[in-house]
Design brief:
It comes from Sphaerobolus stellatus (strain SS14). By secondary structure, the chain is an alpha/beta fold. It has 17 helices and 26 strands.
Length: 578
């Protein structure tokens, strides 16, 4: 069967993203009061309103055209952590009809070179802390060093060419460009971003995202959440509405990632809210920011929820001002959802699901659920159509598992310069997500796990996310990662990598006999045995580690855990031979 979200009015197909976000008052869009800023710099409290943003965008666009001859379809690489001028760079590039590719600021030279060459970038706009990598990557990519522009850094002398200088020069001279209005339908193919994703497998690929896809997703979420619904605004008391002009959202997840790029940097601003821009995640500093800026809305990933539930510093901060929390980018277990909800009982706790290839969100928690169904990623957004494809190729119905395949106005155009990968993932306008899901009759959607991450024990499927969620409910566990490891009889068995919480670490450190660590290990194994069917038991053992490796969006990098498991096996076998 085909699953449908609600209907969606046709999004505008002749606007670029800055024309939509900065220049247009969409019908029923909430109106921001003049004293409510758009962007707030976390460390200093400095803020931008609409007029300052538009002026900076105009000045930078003019200088990019004059100094670097940026033209239609040229590519500008933005290589920076979150910054108050991140959106300014994006929208200035779009004013010229050019394309942004945002790079992970922790990249090394080789990784940045790969992105620069794949997208054929012409200019790099870098944070000063990334200067050495940017310079060397530019050299290896045949980009002149003079084509690296540096963002402002609080408390540091500016590097040249300096973004603020370019903006000032652009504003003091006659505009060097005429912004083009798109023809009807052109926004559906006019590229705005090359955002990198590994897709379901393989090396990172440049996802080609048109302006229409992002605009559509903003409108899909806005309708779904009541932001552009006059009836909802008129009938639901203001204090009960999820999104209100003047609310303040945290901007701690990276803007280079599709989650931060679309939801935070565009949808939150469209919803007439403010964003507190935080360059780098530090848990206790984030708690301070929540209190200092009176933040009401959190957009997070599961590892950050783990910290809220497990970190001893949480109890030292007043979280009563939080009203709405969304968790995305990776599955959040039902156990962890309920733990977190007890911490912030006044807040709505929601989940969403999406990916770069779908220009982010395809599901969110509906307005009818103040606390999303534990473990569910919500319901399909307006305009989304979905198929659940079983392993034999037939279509699943309700309560049947299969691969999620989706389409809608927010779908991207494929992978740039990679026809084979595009053919595998983008099929006749539908996107194969690589995620196994099931849909309940009430519309709740559950992500079982990544198809490639599921392993089989004696033919039975085991989803790592399920076991990880259960392990996080153990009082000594601070974080957990589960993989399948080879076993002669069962094919594979579950192995858990565990980060102990602070209290357990102290007990282990103070125990001179070594018995405490073994006691905890045995307790964790029993904890799973007491609650899970036998094929899900931790027959591969429990290994204690300092950290669970994750990518910037919070997804566990299981390949590193598998490599570590192989090394441990070799060490044990070598020791046995001695």
């Amino acid at each position: 069967m085909i699953f449908y979200g609600d209907s969606l009015p046709a999004p505008p197909d002749n606007l670029t993203i800055p024309q939509f976000i900065l220049d247009t008052q969409y019908p029923s869009q909430p109106i921001r009061q003049a004293h409510h800023p758009w962007l707030i710099e976390d460390a200093t409290g400095r803020s931008y309103g609409l007029q300052e943003i538009r002026a900076r965008v105009q000045g930078l666009a003019s200088s990019l055209k004059t100094k670097f001859d940026i033209q239609e379809d040229d590519v500008v690489c933005l290589f920076s952590p979150n910054h108050i001028d991140y959106g300014v760079v994006i929208w200035a590039t779009h004013r010229l009809g050019a394309i942004i590719t945002a790079a992970n600021p922790t990249f090394g030279v080789e990784e940045l070179v790969y992105q620069l060459k794949t997208t054929r970038a012409k200019v790099i706009i870098s944070h000063p802390t990334s200067r050495d990598v940017a310079v060397e990557a530019a050299r290896l990519s045949s980009i002149p060093e003079s084509h690296i522009v540096y963002l402002p850094q609080t408390g540091a002398a500016p590097l040249e060419p300096y973004l603020d200088d370019l903006i000032s020069e652009g504003l003091q001279s006659k505009p060097s460009y005429v912004e083009r209005k798109l023809n009807p339908g052109e926004a559906k193919t006019k590229l705005a971003f090359y955002s990198f994703s590994s897709g379901t497998t393989g090396k990172p690929k440049a996802v080609a995202i048109p302006h229409y896809a992002l605009i559509s997703n903003v409108l899909q979420m806005s309708k779904f959440e009541g932001v552009t619904d006059p009836a909802y605004q008129a009938t639901v008391p203001r204090e009960q509405q999820r999104f209100r002009p003047g609310d303040v959202a945290i901007g701690v997840l990276p803007f280079f990632h599709i989650y931060g790029l679309v939801l935070k940097l565009h949808w939150i601003l469209f919803s007439a809210m403010s964003i507190v821009v935080i360059p780098k995640f530090n848990y206790e500093n984030m708690l301070k920011s929540i209190v200092r800026h009176k933040i009401t809305h959190l957009l997070l990933v599961p590892p950050q929820i783990v910290l809220f539930c497990k970190h001893p510093a949480t109890k030292n901060y007043d979280l009563s001002g939080l009203r709405w929390v969304m968790v995305g980018a990776a599955p959040l277990s039902s156990e962890l959802t309920l733990q977190f909800q007890k911490l912030v009982p006044q807040a709505e706790v929601n989940q969403g699901y999406g990916m770069t290839e779908t220009c982010t969100t395809t599901t969110m928690t509906p307005l009818s659920q103040r606390l999303g169904t534990p473990g569910s990623v919500g319901h399909f957004l307006p305009g989304v159509r979905a198929k659940i494809v079983k392993s034999d190729g037939s279509l699943a119905g309700y309560d049947q598992e299969g691969e999620l395949v989706v389409t809608g106005p927010q779908m991207t155009l494929g992978y740039a310069n990679n026809a084979q990968a595009t053919k595998e993932t983008f099929v006749d306008g539908w996107v194969r997500t690589g995620d196994e899901v099931l849909v309940r009759r009430n519309g709740d959607i559950f992500v079982v796990d990544r198809l490639k991450e599921i392993f089989k024990v004696r033919g039975f499927q085991v989803a790592p996310a399920e076991l990880e969620g259960h392990l996080l409910d153990h009082p000594d566990v601070g974080d957990a990662g589960v993989i399948g490891v080879p076993e002669e009889f069962s094919g594979e068995v579950a192995m858990a990598f565990i980060v102990l919480n602070a209290d357990a670490q102290t007990r282990v450190a103070n125990d001179k006999t070594g018995h405490e660590k073994e006691r905890i290990r045995e307790a964790i194994i029993k904890f799973v045995k007491d609650s899970k069917v036998q094929y899900k038991w931790l027959a591969g053992g429990v290994e204690f580690v300092d950290i669970i490796p994750k990518n910037p969006s919070g997804k566990i990098l299981r390949r590193f855990l598998r490599e570590q498991a192989k090394e441990l096996k070799v060490q044990r076998e070598t020791k046995a031979k001695l």
